[in-house]
Design brief:
Blueprint lengths: L1 E5 L4 E5 L5 E10 L5 H18 L2 E6 L3 E9 H12 L4 E12 L16 H16 L3 H14 L1
Antiparallel strand pairs: 1-2, 3-5, 3-6, 4-5
Amino acid sequence: MIATIIPTTGTLAVAPRSNPMRRLVYVSRSFIDADPATLDAMVRESSVRNVAVGITGMLWFDGSYFAQVLEGEHDQVCETMKRIRSDPRHSDLEVVLDQEVKGRAFGKWGMAQPNNGPESMASTAFLVGLSITRRGHAAKRLHDIVVACEA
């Protein structure tokens, strides 16, 4: 079974799984300015697009770099990553984690930014844990972005 988003309500419904569920975490350099309105517009645009294809996730932004989690059917995450890799607002994209999972851990939203809510705090804690158990530049960058967003 897979959880899919119902576009009219933005909620999740269970449907037969035709494709494995995938969680992908990446970091990238941002080419947007640090204006909150610019980021909010990008998140709204991404949320609408993600809901349409059953993707959920969160986006952290420290003013210079993005850290993002995407969850959904394998093929949909792959297509979303192709779009992100060609998006001129990103460069130097590095994948920190790409794995099959049994279910979603990053909410019932198409795309969200971290806040002080319990789901957001759990998501942030997951990424901090992930970043300290991985090696390499991308994991360090992930840690730095997430910690900066919580400061």
